[in-house]
Amino acid sequence: MSFYTPDNFHQIGSVGFVLNKVRNQISADMDSALKGMHVKGQHIGILMSLLRGSNTTPASLSRHLGVDSGLMTRMLDKLEGLGLIVRSRDTVDRRVVNLQLTAAGRATAQRVAELAPDVLNARLRSFSGAEYDELCRLLHKLLQD
Q1: What CATH code is carried by the domain that includes residue 131?
Q2: Which intervals hold domain HTH marR-type (predicted)?
Q3: Closest Cα partner for 44 from 89, 83, 79?
Q4: Residue 1 within any structural domain of the chain
Q5: What range does the domain containing 100 cover?
Q6: What are the start-end ranges of the H helices in 82-128?
Q7: Would residue 89 count as lying in a domain?
Q8: Which residues pair with residue 85 across a beta bridge?
Q9: How big is the chain by its Cα radius of gyration, in Å?
């Protein structure tokens, strides 16, 4: 089924436009909540992945978060410059770079994990449980290829 045609397509009403606007608003909310921590909403995926021990290489983080390698490098440079992560070469395959949180990075990631739910819950405050479940279901459906 086709939902858009050249005749009825209006950017402002499109799913892509609305999703991007929602993403930008959540990102701004996160940035506000993280103010003073020197990290931004865009760093949350990296910090949470490393805190949980998953996706611990730049390449796997790029795939997991859906960002290109250039942006990933810039974000990792920022976090490394802040003393939140360290990069090291893999002992088995020197081509692989491993990422780890420093003690300061672990403390920051844990603080982010405390703040992020409040930000998301505030944005979702008018949703019922059923609406939240349906939103999650539909968003995951959009991600399917």
Answers
A1: 1.10.10.10
A2: 12-144
A3: 79
A4: no
A5: 11-143
A6: 103-123
A7: yes
A8: 101
A9: 18
